[in-house]
C-alpha cells in the first residue's frame, strides 16, 4: 500500500466540517425520528456475492472507536466470520492489549508464544509467524495479549513508528481478501498504526447520546492521519450497534447519525441481543454459536452490504 503526504483533502463527512460541529452540539431529544431512519429498520436484503476465482489482495479495514463498549470487537469477529461464510479469506488482527478479539475466538491469552506484539517490536517476525487458525478454514487470527500494552512506549523512539503495522500487513496482504484490525478503545499510537495501514475505517457506534458526541473526535483523528500519513484512507461506514427500536433515544441517535453521515451509515443495524455476551463465553462467532439468530443474520447482511458496495465501486471505476 503506497503511503504519502497530501494536504487540503476534502472532508470525510458529506456535510463537511459543519456536520462535525452539529455532532458536537447535539443534545438529547434534538433530533426526532425521520422517515429515512425508519426505512433503515429492517435493512433491505443484499444478494450473496459471486464466488472468487482466487484470493487477494485484501482490503484492510480498521474497526475503530475510541469509546469502549460499542460493539467493536463483536463486530470484528462476526463480520469476519460472515465474510468467511461468503467464501472470503479473512485475517483478523488483534490490536487491543486486552486481547478481547483473541478471547472471543477461544484463544487463551496466557498460552500464546508469539503475538502481534512480537511483530511490532521485532522486525524479524512477521504476521505469518503468529497466525492462528480458527474453526473456519478461511478465518485466521493474529492474536494479542497484555504484552501489547507496552508496545506504544517501545515504539515511540522507532523510525517510522506509525508505519510498523502497515509494513507487516503488506507482507501478507496478497494472501487474503479482507483484513480486519480490531483497535483498542483509544486514539494512541497503536490506533494510528491501524489507521495508517488501513484502506478504510469501519466505526461501530452504540445508539447512545455520548457515543454520538465522541464520533466527532474520531473523525478528526481520521482526517489528520489521512492528511499526514495515509492519503487514501476513507470511512468504510458507520455501523449502528446496540439498537433498540422500542426507545425514542435509539431512534433519535440513529436519525442524527444519518443526518450527519448520510450514505456512510450502513443500512444494516445491529440490534441488542443477549446472544452476543453468550458468544464471548463460548469463544465462537455468533454465526456458528447461534447461526439462526437475528444477530447472526444481521452480520451476514452487513457482510453482503459491504461486498455489494465494493462491487459497485469496482464497477464505477471500470466505467460500467
From TrEMBL:
<comment type="similarity">
    <text>Belongs to the ParA family.</text>
</comment>
<dbReference type="InterPro" id="IPR025669">
    <property type="entry name" value="AAA_dom"/>
</dbReference>
<feature type="region of interest" description="Disordered">
    <location>
        <begin position="1"/>
        <end position="47"/>
    </location>
</feature>
<dbReference type="InterPro" id="IPR027417">
    <property type="entry name" value="P-loop_NTPase"/>
</dbReference>
<comment type="function">
    <text>May play a role in septum formation.</text>
</comment>
<protein>
    <submittedName>
        <fullName>Chromosome partitioning protein</fullName>
    </submittedName>
</protein>
<dbReference type="Pfam" id="PF13614">
    <property type="entry name" value="AAA_31"/>
</dbReference>
<dbReference type="InterPro" id="IPR050678">
    <property type="entry name" value="DNA_Partitioning_ATPase"/>
</dbReference>
<feature type="domain" description="AAA">
    <location>
        <begin position="59"/>
        <end position="235"/>
    </location>
</feature>
